[in-house]
Amino acid sequence: MSEAIHDVLGVGNAIVDIIAQADDAFLEAHGMAKGGMALIDEARAHALYATMGSAIEASGGSAANTIAGVASFGGRAAFIGKVRDDEFGQIFGHDLTSLGVRFTTPAATNGAATARCLVLVTPDAQRTMNTHLGACVDLTPADIDADLVAASAITYLEGYLFDPPAAKDAFRKAATIARGAGRKVALTLSDSFCVHRYKDEFKQLIAEHIDILFANEAEIEALYGSRDIAAAADDLAGQVSIAAITRSEKGSLLVSGSERVAVPAAPIEELVDTTGAGDLYAAGVLYGLSRQLSLAECGRLGSLAAAEVIQHYGARPLQPLGELA
């Protein structure tokens, strides 16, 4: 097996995050459920954008945030995701490549606009998301660059993208290529609602294609019907090589065979915005795994990255994670 050119390749939704501060009254006036995520159409995305205050606009999406984190640690990172040839598509591509991430997926020349997520952050650090998926759900197996997958040590799949049938086929194609090249495949379950919708399909995907799994307690409950983390750890140990279960302020649990490593959450000075915490945790763990570090050290890097991102607005690290580590 040849040496990998990239440490981690992400496959996921290519979304531009538009993040602004808001109060509870703003959420109520627009009929938003605080702390939730709602899918919206393009018309509502434009209307809501017009009413938001000053905002930060940057490339986002769960797997893309993780890949940005890997690059911030100093890892060699790449990303596959679909954008449209419009203003937001240019923003997404420019932001990601400026971090040193390889992003060469061809932009769509027709159809829906580039996806965007309008994030309202309230003073209690809760984020309420309104997402127009747009072009990103049009990812197909044809967008999977076989050479790029084969040249990446770990291919990381984003559960949020599991809705469209073509994207599921793209996942399976990427996983098959990666394993055929002797590489590893990782999956984040992304959201308990995703798991509820496709529980049996996720279980099949995990059993047949996944080496490394990321999930939080709610996603574990959705997958197994219980929040018994110890029992879930035993189940996962028989399914995947490594599982990382995040538990918010309680830290995380990493599982590999009979090994169980509990990792505490890294200390913070102030909780500002929880957007991207799980994404950046995954970045630390994946970077550590790409460097053959111990589970404990991988978990420490994950906690460190998550702590950095929740102390400011936005889902990308402001301080180079390699310096923190």
Q: State the CATH superfamily name.
A: Ribokinase
Which residues form runs of ≥5 with pLDDT under 50?
none
Q: What string, H for helix and E for strand, traces the elements in order?
A: EEHEHEHEHEEEHEHEHHEHHEEEHHH
| Number of DSSP strand runs | 14
The top level CATH class name = Alpha Beta
Overall geometry comes to globular
Overall pLDDT level: 93
Separate helix tally: 13
From the alpha carbons, calculate the radius of gyration and give it in angstroms: 18 Å
According to CATH, the fold-level topology is UDP-N-acetylmuramoyl-L-alanine:D-glutamate ligase
Largest sheet: 9 strands, mixed
Count structural domains.
Answer: 1
- Structural class based on helices, strands and sheet pairing: alpha/beta
CATH architectural name: 3-Layer(aba) Sandwich
Structural description of this entry:
This protein starts with 5 loop residues before the first strand and ends with a helix. It has helices spanning 24-29, 42-51, 62-73, 87-98, 146-150, 165-180, 192-197, 199-209, 217-224, 229-237, 277-290, 295-309, 321-324; strands at residues 6-11, 15-21, 37-39, 55-60, 77-80, 102-103, 115-121, 127-132, 152-158, 184-188, 212-216, 242-246, 252-256, 259-263. The chain has a single domain (6-12, 61-107, 136-324), classed as Ribokinase (UDP-N-acetylmuramoyl-L-alanine:D-glutamate ligase), CATH 3.40.1190. Helix 3 crosses helix 11 (277-290) and helix 11 runs antiparallel to helix 12 (295-309). It contains 13 helices and 14 strands. The radius of gyration is 18 Å and the shape is globular. The strands form two sheets. A nine-stranded mixed sheet has the order 6-5-1-9-10-11-12-13-14, with helices on both faces. Strands 3-8-7-2-4 form a five-stranded mixed sheet.
